[in-house]
Design goal:
The structure is a homodimer of 384-residue chains. The first copy, chain A, has 384 residues and is of the alpha/beta class. Chain A folds into two domains: 4-14 and 272-382, Aspartate Aminotransferase, domain 1 (Alpha-Beta Complex), CATH 3.90.1150.10; 17-271, Type I PLP-dependent aspartate aminotransferase-like (Major domain) (Aspartate Aminotransferase, domain 2). The first copy, chain A, has 13 helices and 13 strands. Chain A has helices at 17-30, 40-60, 74-85, 100-113, 130-136, 159-166, 188-191, 217-222, 255-271, 273-292, 321-332, 344-350, 368-382; strands at residues 4-5, 68-71, 91-95, 116-120, 141-147, 172-176, 195-199, 211-215, 297-300, 311-316, 334-335, 337-339, 357-361. In chain A, the strands form three sheets. Chain A has a seven-stranded mixed β-sheet, sandwiched between helices. A four-stranded antiparallel β-sheet of chain A has the order 9-10-13-12, with helices on one face. In chain A, strand 3, helix 4 (100-113) and strand 4 form a beta-alpha-beta unit. The radius of gyration of chain A is 21 Å and the shape is globular. Chain A starts with a strand and ends with a helix. At the A-B interface, helix 1, helix 2, helix 3, helix 4 and helix 9 of A face helix 1, helix 2, helix 3, helix 4 and helix 9 of B.
Chain lengths: 384, 384
Amino acid sequence: MREIYADHAATTFPRPPEVVENMVHYLRDIGCSPGRGAYHKSLAAARMVYEARGLLARLLAVPEPEQIIFTPNVTTSLNLVFKGLLAEGDHVLISSMEHNAVVRPLSRLAREKNVLLEQLACAPDGTLDLLKLRRALRPNTRLVVLTHASNVTGTILPVYEAGEMLAGTDTFFCVDAAQTAGTEVVDFAALQCDYLAFTGHKGLLGPPGIGGLCISRRAATVTRPLIEGGTGSRSEDEYQPDFLPDKFESGTQNMPGIAGLAAGVRLISDTGLAVICKERTTLMESLLSGLAEINGLTIHGTKEAAKSVYTVSINMAGVDCSDLSFMLDQAYGIQTRAGLHCAPLAHKTIGTFPQGTVRFSLGYQNTADDVAAIIAALREISAF
Amino acid sequence: MREIYADHAATTFPRPPEVVENMVHYLRDIGCSPGRGAYHKSLAAARMVYEARGLLARLLAVPEPEQIIFTPNVTTSLNLVFKGLLAEGDHVLISSMEHNAVVRPLSRLAREKNVLLEQLACAPDGTLDLLKLRRALRPNTRLVVLTHASNVTGTILPVYEAGEMLAGTDTFFCVDAAQTAGTEVVDFAALQCDYLAFTGHKGLLGPPGIGGLCISRRAATVTRPLIEGGTGSRSEDEYQPDFLPDKFESGTQNMPGIAGLAAGVRLISDTGLAVICKERTTLMESLLSGLAEINGLTIHGTKEAAKSVYTVSINMAGVDCSDLSFMLDQAYGIQTRAGLHCAPLAHKTIGTFPQGTVRFSLGYQNTADDVAAIIAALREISAF
């Protein structure tokens, strides 16, 4: 049975051969850490990290490469932002489509540190009316956090417009690009945001275990580190250095992860985001129109390919979503993810809590044939 | 020119082929994340993580595999301990041989949170008299942190005896095994400690980017997470789960890192720590006795192979340590690390601050020929 992987919103698979090859190249030929020795392999490692930062800076339109901080994943990036910026009494606005990587750390800060957490209610299709943001802003609103696109419905939120609204104010703006970096235009400069959290193992085609945070100069100054330790710099100092990126990068880095991520980013840059977005839109249009023709299916989200990324959630009348996902895997080789997708808030917003949905999320590796097979399988199951 | 890598205390190199192969196997054949889907690849990923935890639990004598938490590196493990446990007014004891991964986060907690940080002065050879620990303990001593072995001199600290002294008290005990896991007996149960922080890319022969923390049941209950987010468990809950290991493991894990680490641990278990320790002692005896015969060399540390791990620091009269390290690399292909090794406190203790030392740190890959070449090179340089 041919396998169709449709869980790219969780992680990309299969990874491009270049990604694996560059990881193996690092492991076999470089192997060492940057800044921990003056011998040539250590210098080669430093060069590799420098190049990776440069590639990401160009792709994400970040002014200076050192404004990109490597982290293990987007969850760590977001925790760094919340715990590094927020203080007692700060007001924080989030959309009601956020992932638990946003909700859980902020819920704890709300409970323990008296941070005032407020949700902006999105529509049942996941869209956000920016008037709600404008009305909710208060003098003590320290931070606004918006996902660029929902990991449940794929719905794109108006992050560029929100950035425009917040520019020049004292409110910091954080964009969660977990679902968009590498598959949608993510332009740090145009977003006018302070924090852009991304992960390496989804649209950027890298391995799991590497992600990052793009940080504005003003945010870099006021944000406290999440982790202090050895940086290979100012070793004589018992306090953390205050310059970028060392302020936020302590301990030995995930070097094979950085190698793999660099290869993924290079591939995306060489292909061009315009091409990637066009292919995605074509594929999603055919998936959405196919789904719409199947009886008994509820499609969650905007139902418009241009307003969402590679992801869509569905329910089939009379079929539990776990059962449906299991059937798709066992009988058709189609790999999806059922349940709440670590985003209970989003499921409450779209009206699918607590039962959840079956999520289809495609990637650059999927083809029109895959979409046809998905539609055929669902049609067959719905006809039982 | 034959290259001799003598910087294993920074990271191991070359890695065993099994380590790289298992990473490639994960990337090509599994590729997915555990708990993020019910299809077979996701289940295979879950099995892989489960096996890795089991291998580590056996090697490190941890009662239950879920008491092992994966982190990106030992620095993160230590930050988790300090920030998760300590509160205003707590007294913390550390040895004066600690790395900046201990010193920097604690210095910040001392400055910002009124944590009372006190150093136990080690002798100039790096050894610690346990009477000093006994005398320094106070009713509010919340935590004692000791490195198992210094990353500068290799000196082993009396961590088992300290564990015995602290057992049954209200003081928590944290051992930094960055330099010992995989090359020395690290027995969590016998240490009677609450936290054992380790890294995967040194003695455990894995790749950089993966490490961990072994945690006692009492510590797991009172320690707050450093990072909250999606865990793939209790997705309906807007708060972090409170069970192990999910309480402390949020976001997508470094799966290739776990694959590589598992292969390294399996190799060590198959070889046996007794064999590894014996080989190390033989190699270090010959290195130390060779160094002792060279004029103008100062050897830092215990000068006894049985009382230290694979590492020794030296200075050569009249030669700057950076110059010496550079000469060793350029003229002899011997790769060492000069300077302060992210451990200014340790260098103050042994009397080499701020000039630093040249550190030789060997690994399982080094041979008697390597040691002979190191001695010959130093003899030649000292004769200039």
